[in-house]
Amino acid sequence: MKINWQGVYPAITTKFDQNDNLDLDAFKKNLEVQLASGIHGVILGGTLGEASTLTEEEKDQLIKTTIEVTKGDIPVVINIAEQSTRGAIAAAKRAESNGANGLMLLPPMRYKADDRETVEYFKAVAASTSLPIMIYNNPVDYKIEVTIDMFEELAPIANIQAIKESTRDVTNVTRLKSKFGDRYAVLCGVDTLAVETLVNGADGWVGGLVCAFPAETVAIYELMKAGRIEEAVAINRWFMPLCELDLHPKLVQYIKLAEVAAGIGTEHVRAPRLPLIGKEREEVLAIIDAGIKSRPVLPDYKALAV
């Protein structure tokens, strides 16, 4: 499947049951609501997907289940976050053999590689697979920035096609588009900056709170692309307190709690993460409850999609 890297791509959460096994029924239910809401692709095993806690067999199962549910209608992308080049290449090959349509690729984990090492890592993984790749640029959380110069060095590699832009600097979208034009698709990776990033020319949005509020997320995207910015901004103002949950170290617990409130998820997380308790839980629930009670009436945003 060719990926055009446009639209809303949920970084979907991994559902577990009370015995710490994959809850595929809950996973399918959420994914079906995402599809009905008009998402354009799905990303598995990212930060929100609790990637570091998943076994290889569980990742295989998530890919196969997602392909079963999506039926080829949207791209299925799997995240690669490995400590070694060898491990990343093995993960890429395994994803391709399992039927994934694309990869989201982080720089090396744990070791803070320099620019040359990071570029060589990306080149080696790209050379090992025919799958299209989106580079995840998140120096805030993962301590390695993929710079404009590094992307210039990667530009000749055809299957490195997109950038998940999570530097927190919305002007970086302008820099990327000014330098590379349409060579790379650029997708917003920070929920609180989506509208601003789309105004600056981003092609898509890798979302977090979309896991609980898919219709509102897709509506904002479609309205922005249709030039109906005031309507998008109005929904985004409602959405902002919820989107800020995506910026916290406990974003997995926060967003899973929002999924439960929206009726499309479970709260179970995999240790060392633990469910929220006490005052923190009450404060997060208050934000979610206020959002649920004041959900906006959406226009027919699906009619805007080209």
TrEMBL record:
Family matches, as CDD domains: DHDPS-like
UniProt xrefs under Gene3D superfamilies: Aldolase class I
Active site, per annotation: 136, 164
This protein's UniProt keywords: Lyase
UniProt-listed Pfam families: DHDPS (PF00701)
GO molecular function, one term: 4-hydroxy-tetrahydrodipicolinate synthase activity
UniProt: pyruvate binding residues: 206
Sequence intervals crossing the membrane: none
Family per record: Belongs to the DapA family.
Protein's name according to its UniProt entry: 4-hydroxy-tetrahydrodipicolinate synthase
Upper classification of the organism: Bacteria, Pseudomonadati, Bacteroidota, Cytophagia, Cytophagales
